[in-house]
Amino acid sequence: MSRSRFTRRGVLKTGAIGGAGLALPTYLRADGHSGFTNAPTGDTVKIGFNVPQTGPYAEEGLDELRAQELAVEHINGEGDGGMLATFSEQNLDGTGILGKKVEFVTGDTQTKSDVARASAQQMIEREGVIMVNGGSSSGVAVAVQALCQEAGVIFMAGLTHSNDTTGKDRKANGFRHFFNSYMSGAALAPVLEGAYGNQRRAYHLTADYNWGYTTQEAVQTSTEAMGWETVETVLTPVGAGDFNSYITPVLNSGADVLVLNHYGGDMVNSLSQAIQAGIRDRMVDGTQMEIVVPLYSELMAAGAGSNIEGVFGSMNWNWQLEDAGTAAFTRSFGEKYGRPPSNAAHTCYVQTLLYADAVTRAGSFNPCAVVEALEDFEFDGMGNGATTYRGADHQCFKDVLVVKGKENPTNQYDTLEIVEVTPRAQVEYAADHPSFGGADATLGSCNPGA
Amino acid sequence: MEEILQQVINGLDRGSAYALIALGLTLIFGTLGVVNFAHGALFMIGAFVAVLVSDLLGDIRELGSADDFFKLVQVVEDPTQTDFLGRPLSVETSYWVVWFGENFGNWLSDWSVPIAVLISIPIMIFIGWAMERGLIRHFYHRPHADQILVTFGLAIVLGDLIRAMYGANPIQTAMPESLSGPVDLGVFLGYDVGTITYSSWRIVYFFFSMTIIAGVFAFLQFTTFGMVVRAGMADRETVGLLGININKYFTLMFGLAAAVAGVAGVMFAPIQAPSYNLGMEYLVPCFVVVVVGGMGSLPGAVLAGFLLGIVQSFASLPTWKTSLVERLGLDDGNLIANLIIGVDQIAIYLIAIIILLTRPRGLLGRKGVMED
């Protein structure tokens, strides 16, 4: 004879508690606090900064690293706190993350996808990092993002501008604070129309890889929509050095705008060589020929020197913005390193704080809890105005800057001037936009790993 | 037609850079029998001599550059201006301007790259001499694979050394203001104004290359030193038996080859902003030039340099490629269409394959070189 241990009252009570538990967000449930890759056990938690420390984007990577170290200092309660004081969420109190002091390890991506993956893998498997942050290059970002998805850790991409990172290659464990090619095109087009009119003929020189394609497509689409004609699009090898054989055909092509979809050293060289070839001295049917560089960075602008004067481009952020968050970060960074931060540095700094805040709000390091805390998260005070991490694709939506090479710079950091802060509404798009993988693009499921 | 002329000029310009680097490579291979993978690094060091001299002569035009290594400028705080943190701005003034007045100081700064050519010659000869005496001579009797490994390693070390000093970012180095714009070549050929224009500095570079190449040939052809070197290249042992210390001559030839690479690099600095990996970018195409020209053949290196420069230039011209794709009726996504459109990225290697299949020793290669 058997006797049941269940009572009617007991079953009802258990059911009620269970129902309430299920109604809570996953990250607030007890099972969200264990059973994930590299769950921190002691009084410290380790995060990984995977940036190019050698190779063509090393200077940018080193600037990202400076910013990430600064962010760790601020999270751990050292220094002046930087943007912690201006961040709209006030959950970080300088005691680390959930009471655990933050430690970090660094890796060198060399701006190569395979090296970056190996470096991230070593950080996750040997160093036990709970999150990977940083990097320059979309190829690297897509590769490392896929690895972090498989491994069950959070990936916060650094400087990656290709649509694909949060487009067709989006992943549930990956997030991008930086803006993208589509946003550059949408922000630049009206400014270009205002400056050069709507009857221009554009010639594109495009870096022959993922980022180049999406940037060309974005700028081409947005400028054609306002009436410009695209005369020719030419792919150029990455790291070509001497672009003159690609520039000379532009001179007699009938085009009156040269769009350089190049980045880093390639942009420095192609722009300088275009100026030397007399592109900006040339008149085409009575119209002054112009150059456009869709994506700028401070380090590129410094490399190109006076050649960027009057050349339009776009940026994610610039230290010259006048909001409180920008001032706090620029002061903090400038006093520590003696130079203003680049927009790559800003993104990496902000993402480190955003991750720490998301963990604190979630009450857990579980990647799935962090994903839920970041999805559709709205914040302010980080230098870009009101910002949202869209849940559908993990892309940040915020204002975009249109900048121009300064005509009469007064010092070595005074290279760019902000022409327009393009409102966020102007650069927004649907999550299933064809340029972002269409309806087939999905984040998949969050992977907590172990 | 204008387009074709423009690309021919571009090909000659690019070819002159290839020829100049390949000439030095061939000099070293022809005299010492060493395959020098560090030759690109010598070109890169030459470019950084331009950066160094530019700094020493107080170039303050390159706002934002990280090249403040050895910068010879007076820094004075200007309380009327502020920096990004609101502190008094540090204003840089060249010491040459402070010492000798604005006219002379600015002239020195403006002409820093041509001045660097003169300064680079003794520096590069010394670096070449030190490389040969300190490292490469120990590998004369080792297999070519060992020579390639050690010189490639040396190139990496030199590149990293420059990166440690100047950072990884390319550093813009200005040409003289009067040569910075384009020149209208079309008017000399009967075209309308502005039809065929070309960078003035690149034209200067072309004539500079031709002068250096002619100088090297004249030196080898018309001097006793050159005669001994040529004899040594043809039969090293016999020259040695005549009581001539051929090794001493060859060491000097290594220094000369380094100087040729160096001055080529100095003059190239305003064309392509120097960075620590500049040498590696030019090493591979220049080896192709040497092989196509014929290993050890100086005229072959020059001929192949210009040939491949022109091929590369025409391969980059989009009009013929798009019209060919249209004539063949190929879609954008078609593999053949993509190959035609992207042929510029493989053109010099395709030509190299064709030439080596038809002339295995290269255009002007001699029998017996690298065939043992």
Describe this structure in words.
- The complex is a heterodimer of chains A (450) and B (372).
- Chain A is 37% helix and 19% strand.
- Chain A is an alpha/beta fold.
- The two termini of chain A are 43 Å apart.
- Chain B has 372 residues and is mainly α.
- Chain B is globular.
- In chain B, helix 1 runs parallel beside helix 6, helix 1 (2-32) packs antiparallel against helix 9 (246-268) and helix 1 runs antiparallel to helix 11 (298-315).
- The model of chain B is unreliable at 61-67 (pLDDT under 50).
- Chain B has one domain (2-56, 111-316): Orthogonal Bundle (ABC transporter involved in vitamin B12 uptake, BtuC), CATH 1.10.3470.
- At the A-B interface, strand 7, helix 7, helix 8, helix 9 and helix 10 of A face helix 1, strand 2, strand 4, helix 10 and helix 12 of B.
Give the class-level CATH name of chain B: Mainly Alpha
The greatest inter-chain interface is formed by: A-B, 55 and 61 residues
What is the CA–CA distance across the termini of chain B?
48 Å
CATH class of the largest domain in chain A: Alpha Beta
- Which spans of chain B of ≥5 residues are poorly predicted at pLDDT below 50? 61-67
Question: Which secondary-structure class do the elements of chain A indicate?
Answer: alpha/beta
Return Rg of chain A in Å: 24 Å
Number of domains of chain A: 2
- Largest sheet composition of chain B: 2 strands, antiparallel
Number of DSSP E strands of chain A: 17
Tally of DSSP helical segments of chain B: 14
